[in-house]
Write a structure and sequence with these properties.
Elements: H1 3-6, H2 10-14, H3 20-30, H4 34-54, H5 62-71, H6 99-111, H7 120-144, E1 150-156, E2 160-167, E3 172-178, E4 187-195, E5 198-204, E6 212-215, E7 225-232, E8 245-248
Helix pairs in contact: 4-7, 5-6
């Protein structure tokens, strides 16, 4: 692998996506390339923030519901052959899960947003929520791990910090933010692409989340940077307030 190739692996290395042999070679490269080492640190921090932003907090009653459901599962005795010996071979496929296995399945489902998968009327909603979370995470991850991803960090308002990751090859940008206070009632944080001084709408942030990771709406095209403003609920076609953040896109 050439030195030029190694410079393109920062995103994949930051999210542990390199094969073991390539990872070892890239780690040797990091010892002598401060630019790549710095970019890996930024991308790793961004990926960690992405994980926090995508996390789903199960409701307080989840534990009680899981325990109640486990206690209601009837355990089947082992199959016994004639003469009192345990039958050889696997049990029928239709047998119920043991309690510990059921608990593990429920806990795993809850981690992906399916906090009520044991209730039929809520299963579809839980599955749809999990799919939305997964799709959102994948869309952001594709930008973060792009070989040409370029990272820019900055402040958002008085308390927030933001990271914008741009992939020129994919022509997309992802924005990650943490520490944002909840906007006033009827207001929302809106993202913008800066097209040479003209602000182009690029999506809204969930006003109920202090941490967020989103794929900015639309292609980057010739945008030189991005901004964040506070707008009326639903967003605005043009900024109506002074930006609380302005970031110029870093160039390779």
């Amino acid at each position: 692998m050439t030195g030029a190739d190694l410079h393109t692996l920062t995103g994949a290395y930051a999210v542990n996506a390199l094969p073991e042999e390539e990872a070892r070679e890239f780690e040797r490269h990091l010892l002598v390339c401060e630019a790549c080492a710095h970019e890996v640190r930024e991308l790793a921090a961004t990926a960690e923030r992405l994980g926090r932003a995508m996390a789903v907090v199960p409701p307080p009653e989840m534990k009680e519901r899981v325990l109640h459901r486990i206690s209601a599962v009837r355990q089947e005795p082992p199959r016994v052959a004639r003469g009192g010996r345990r039958a050889a071979g696997p049990a029928p496929r239709a047998r119920r899960l043991p309690r510990w296995a059921l608990a593990a399945c429920l806990a795993a489902a809850a981690a992906f947003g399916g906090v009520a998968v044991w209730q039929h009327d809520q299963a579809e909603n839980a599955r749809a929520q999990a799919q939305r979370i997964e799709q959102r995470a994948e869309s952001v991850a594709r930008v973060l791990t792009a070989p040409d991803a370029v990272v820019t960090n900055g402040k958002v308002g008085d308390a927030g910090t933001g990271t914008v990751v741009v992939s020129p090859g994919r022509n997309r940008a992802a924005f990650l933010v943490s520490g944002l206070p909840r906007p006033a009632e009827g207001r929302v944080y809106q993202l913008w692409f800066n097209d040479g001084g003209t602000m182009r709408p690029a999506g809204l942030l969930d006003p109920g989340r202090a941490d967020a990771a989103v794929l900015m709406d639309g292609a980057v095209d010739g945008a030189s940077g991005m901004g964040v403003t506070v707008e009326p609920a639903g967003g605005s076609p043009q900024p109506t307030t002074k930006p609380i953040a302005l970031m110029e896109f870093s160039r390779v």
